[in-house]
Amino acid sequence: MTVSPDIVMSHDNTAAIAKKFKQIGIYKVKHPEKIVIPLDHCVPAATEKYASNHKEIREFIREQKIANFYDINTGVCHQVLPEKGHVLPGNLILGADSHTTTYGAFGAFSAGIGRSEVASIWATDEIWLRVPETIKINIEGEIPPGIYPKDIILHIIGDLGADGALYKAVEFSGKVIRNMDIGGRMTLCNMAVEMGAKIGYVEPDDKTIQWLASRTNRKYTIIKSDADAEFEKIIDYDISGLEPQV
């Protein structure tokens, strides 16, 4: 289906995307207000080449009048976007980074795409996406001492494999998820791509709403799986006996 994203994210790769954008023959982004650009991968610039890259990005920002720009002193992109209020439940967020799946922790459909795709969205405000089938992963039990969300997701990836959820929407649910803080949910969704998933997703709840309340006053619609939703498969884990994975 052809869709129009709510947010398009790029980071230190923005200069390379800008070159592709201008190769299309279009020199003005269609919706600068939808673009969010944090610099975070090599900050401060460690080489003259990287400093030139940052300079090109800042020039592009000014040229295109992009307001949502976060320079080298702000933080990692996947923390910056939610903390600055750019991530909302029900949003479609696409980014030039494979771990854009992180924002599914807030109930967004959030996926990584290629640089050429980002350039085309800047130009047209559209992209074609295939609707993924959904795998539901229920995580139950009591988290043992010394076990963290990273251990849980590494265990799941180790079990399912690097292509175990290829182009699937992975919905995390269960008691462990309900009790998990927002940071932990972000960890699970961040790593969903490592088993091939198109997106990771956690259904928003009171924790989500409270977390967002101090960061944005924008309205949003929470989208949940229907009571009779059909899943490609449902996988259950009891992590009560899980040992450290690293």
TrEMBL record:
Domain Aconitase/3-isopropylmalate dehydratase large subunit alpha/beta/alpha: 4-246
InterPro entries tied to this protein: Acnase/IPM_dHydase_lsu_aba_1/3, Acoase/IPM_deHydtase_lsu_aba, Aconitase_4Fe-4S_dom, IPM_dehydratase_rel_enz
Keywords assigned by UniProt, alphabetized: Iron, Iron-sulfur, Lyase, Metal-binding
Gene Ontology molecular function, alphabetical: iron-sulfur cluster binding; lyase activity; metal ion binding
Alphabetical GO biological process terms: oxoacid metabolic process
UniProt feature coiled coil, ranges: none
Family matches, as Pfam families: Aconitase
PANTHER family named among the record's database cross-references: HOMOACONITASE, MITOCHONDRIAL-RELATED, ISOPROPYLMALATE_CITRAMALATE ISOMERASE LARGE SUBUNIT
Protein name as catalogued: Aconitase/3-isopropylmalate dehydratase large subunit alpha/beta/alpha domain-containing protein
Organism: marine sediment metagenome
